[in-house]
Amino acid sequence: MVLDNLGSSLRGTLDDLRGKSRLSEEDIEDIVKEIQRSLLQADVDVSLVQELSNNIETRALDEEPPAGTTPRDWVLRIVYEELVEMVGESTDLPLEEQTIMLAGLYGSGKTTTAAKMAWWFSTKGLRPAIIQTDTDRPGAYDQSKEMADRAEVDFYGDPDEDDPVTIAREGLEATKDADVRIVDTAGRDGLNQELIDQIERIEQAVNPDRNLLVLDAAMGQSAKSQAADFEASIGIDGVVITKLDGTAKGGGALAAVNETDSTIAFLGSGETVKDIERFEPSGFISRLLGMGDLKQLTERVERAMEETGEEEEDWDPEDMMEGAFTLKDMRKQMQTMNNMGPLDQVMDMIPGLGGGLMDQLPDDAMDVTQERMQDFDVIMDSMTEAEMENPRVVGQSRTERIARGSGKPEERVRELLDQHRQMEQMLKQFQGMGDGDMERMMKQMQQGGGGGGGGMGGMGGPGGPFGD
């Protein structure tokens, strides 16, 4: 993710406090300097960095930590609260009938964002529609139509009409049965008078309930002036920050929202329509500091389970808690993981597994893991029904046959069998747990004691996808 370097640096600074029973003024000064350096490298505005670091230093020196709280945990809490304050609240976005207009410059990701937002609203039980009014950019209609098809939402556009206002008016009529209309507009290399006039005319025609500004995470500190210009011309009710999976620093885009008294509505990453999440400040900063985000994780798990269940209605994940754990069950778990999104994002949401653990893994660890999971899927295609139901029958001769049939090395077949055994053992532990045991385990995970990769059923073990 774009702010990984910031999160890694902040976590490293706080980890230096482990084992200390008291903090001196010198300790706090060192911490604040490191936080300043981390934020400046993430392209956060200098004045904002100074304000933030001053608040952290003052609170760390003047406030008394609660009894039993370690210095590290106390400073972590202060940093967390101040960063949440910096990024602000989430944009108010009720799940009701409304019209939303998107604005932004060329390349900011408006068209992709329109489809992602439409998909998100559809997961909340609403019927969304996209109205494409960009008549300037070649291919805008085709791209928007294709993205709407992927999101499985209604779409209106007219490639033969040159007036975006006419398209907007006709689009409102054509999509009158939709609950949420998302109006995509044209962009420019810079906010000039022509673009302002066009957006204002579209705004008058559609009378949107909300104007959202789409900002590229790579904008850096120039995002502040861009946000201020759009605010002055049409007024913005919220911001969508896109391309958070790139190599840009991203702090400037986040800080820009603070400077314009606006709020963040969504965060976008990746190219698929599902690569979007509703901005929740507490969860976002929690992930940044390696504390996980159980709310976002729960939403993704529930959505992924629904999608996996739709693919094969006969499969019920609760059956695994009662009977034998087969390779069919393992395959469904893998499909559920894939439906949750990129593995590194999912890991960041798990308390005790994201953050610090991710810092220790090689840069390509997630790619390697994804590749192994894909290999496992291919290998299972070459197995018989009996082998999928009872993998213990797979000996050397069967391993050789499966390897030949799948085109994968025998070692990868053995890795699959080892991974299944580890997950089966973990599941047996769960089967014997009462509610109190489960609560204690979740509490341990939230405190960072989840046991590293082992908390994912051996994902970090010698036979697991993270293993060597």
Describe this structure in words.
It is a single chain. By secondary structure, the protein is of the alpha/beta class. Helix content is 54%, strand content 8%. Strands 3-2-4-1-5-6-7-8 form an eight-stranded mixed β-sheet, with helices on both faces. Strand 7 and strand 8 form a beta hairpin. The chain starts with a helix and ends in a 22-residue tail after the last helix.
Itemize the secondary structure elements and their pairings:
Layout: H1 4-15, H2 25-41, H3 46-62, H4 71-87, E1 98-103, H5 110-123, E2 128-132, H6 140-151, E3 154-156, H7 164-174, E4 180-184, H8 193-206, E5 210-216, H9 222-233, E6 238-242, H10 251-259, E7 264-268, E8 276-278, H11 281-288, H12 294-311, H13 327-339, H14 343-348, H15 356-360, H16 365-381, H17 385-389, H18 396-406, H19 410-431, H20 435-446
Parallel strand pairs: 1-4, 1-5, 2-3, 2-4, 5-6, 6-7
Antiparallel strand pairs: 7-8
Helix pairs in contact: 1-2, 2-3, 3-4, 4-11, 5-6, 7-8, 9-10, 12-13, 16-18, 18-19
The main pleated sheet reads as: 8 strands, mixed
Strand and helix order: HHHHEHEHEHEHEHEHEEHHHHHHHHHH
SS class: alpha/beta
Determine the strand fraction and express it as a percent band: 5-15%
Distance between the termini: 24 Å
How many β-strand stretches? 8
Task: Provide mean pLDDT, rounded.
Answer: 79
User: What Rg is obtained from the alpha carbons, in whole angstroms?
Assistant: 25 Å
Amount of helix? 40-55%
Q: What would you call the shape?
A: flat
Provide the low-confidence segments as ranges. Answer: 445-468
State the strand order across the main sheet: 3-2-4-1-5-6-7-8
Number of helices: 20
